[in-house]
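Reagents: none. Just compute today. Guanidinium exporter.
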Amino acid sequence: MAWTYLFFAGLFEIGWAIGLKYTDGFSKLTPTVLTVASMVISLGLLGLALKSLPLGTAYAIWTGIGTVGTAMLGIWLFGEPATAIRLACIGLIVSGIVGLKLVA
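Predicted 3D structure written out:
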């Protein structure tokens, strides 16, 4: 169950990272409320996952999921560049996530 918590914690991390862009410096109420809610849920789920997963592994995977998801959504939603080197680096992060999962 801890891996499920960690996966969803990572998804909510993506939610709050992307949400920050839509808050317009926390001046828009609805995006701000949703962003803060995503932060709380993400950290809560990470805390549950840490009950049985090693800290270093869980934190690296949590941030990795958030990083990859945010980078990909940045390309899709905000027209950020999708250069070969950028995509390759995202692929390296995914490789690290998979590697950590396999050895944990």
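Residues 2-103 form one domain.
Action item: order primers for follow-up constructs.
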